[in-house]
Amino acid sequence: MKTTGKTAQKNRPETFDADRLFLPDEALLNVLRRTGTPLVLYDEKGLRDTAKSLLNVPIFRAQTVSVSACPFPEILRVACEEGMRAVCRSPQELQTAIACGFPGDRIVYAGVCARPELAEILCRLGAELLIGSPVLIPERLPDRVALQCSIPGRAVFQLPASSHRPRAGLTFEEAAVVASMAKRRGVTELCLAACPDGNCKAVGVLAQKTAQLIRLAERIREESGVEIGSIHLGSGLGLEYSRFKPPVDDAAELEAIRQALDAAPRAYPVECSASRRLFEPNAIFVASCLGVYEREKPTVLIGASFRQLTIPQMDRYRHISVLGKNGVTGRCATDVVGTDLLAKDWFAESRLLPPVEPGDRLILHDVGCCAAGTSAECCLIRADGSLRRLSRDPDCCAASPDAPSDPFPPRQKSG
């Protein structure tokens, strides 16, 4: 996580525009008086506006959100109401998606489907099954199946052959065999999906994946005679801002994808992931400063331990501001650390912050996909301005009227 002084100097963040905060300072202080800190706060209006803008991109047939990225039913219900699809990786996440109102045709099950009764549930719901291993295929398949493939030339984490867990994607030969088998078993719609590798961070990445998936789909069609109906990119548009790189140009990326689709011999509807783009910008994490001590530079200790914020992949998108001091001049390079220093609970290094004093509240922006890793209070600011505490219990959402009354019947005891 920590970088050298030379690297930190080179990668110092740009000045953050505090006007992006979805609550005025006084309104946020009123919320904190009710909830205390640490606090994760989501913005319903921002979530809905972001979802609408993503779904209005004409080049994508659909956009998906991962249940594991934000396991709060209230937040997932917003994504459901706006028309997004849900990706589930366990029976528990599938149950949450059903409780949040996702209809079966907007659910993708990407977990291990070893239990026959789970396959029956997917068939009954009309959900889509994502297959990423040739050895973990149920006897009965739903009408819609996606084949997750390792794209040649792209770095994908692969588990060792001795591992009991599924590998990260099918090879081309395996995908062709599974596609033929799926057709024989009555599957009516096949999708070709790339392994997830995060959001694109440079123009042309998604377009390159689009072209590679189309080539794989054409090879499967030529060698096995099986038609691929659509493709899923396995990642989504890059975030709007980054510590280390300029913003991703959405218009240029979409134009590159359009050119790749125009060059295809036949039409392929495209889906992509929207979890990071939807959740990240619409949540903040507020923690209180417990003290400031001097080392080579000021180091701020905040009263929180939030391990998922300390991994380097997330750090590049993190911005920090100080409540009530956004307009203060005299910013200096400051380190921010949490209470679990033995576990390297290091939030940020060399951030340009105004002078911080004990009792100040620090706001860590863009934490929407990380809230599952904290014990902090999590709340939602509704569109009408009211405050609602969030729970991970799927029972807090009314079940969809089309959902089966008991989608997970208990196993029958043998003997």
Characterization of this structure:
The protein is 27% helix and 21% strand. With 415 residues, it is of the alpha/beta class. The chain folds into two domains: 150 residues, Lyase, Ornithine Decarboxylase, Chain A, domain 1, CATH 2.40.37.10; 189 residues, Alanine racemase (TIM Barrel), CATH 3.20.20.10. Strands 1, 10, 11, 12, 13, 14, 15, 16 and 17 form a nine-stranded mixed β-sheet that branches. Strands 2-3-4-5-6-7-8-9 form an eight-stranded parallel barrel, surrounded by four helices. α9 links the parallel β8 and β9. α7 packs across α8 and α8 runs parallel beside α9.
Straight-line N-to-C gap: 54 Å
| Average residue pLDDT | 76
Beta strands, count = 17
What's the number of helices? 11
The biggest sheet, with number of strands, parallel, antiparallel or mixed sense and barrel status, is:
9 strands, mixed
Order of helices and strands: HHEHEHEHEHEEHEHEHEHEEHEEEEEE
Structural class, from helix and strand content? alpha/beta
How many structural domains?
A: 2
Low-confidence stretches: 1-19, 153-167, 398-415
CATH architecture of the largest domain: Alpha-Beta Barrel
CATH H level, superfamily name of the largest domain: Alanine racemase
> Proportion of β residues?
15-25%
CATH topology of the largest domain: TIM Barrel
Rg measurement, Å: 23 Å
Shape: elongated
**What is the CATH C-level name of the largest domain?**
Alpha Beta
Classify the helix fraction into a percent range.
25-40%
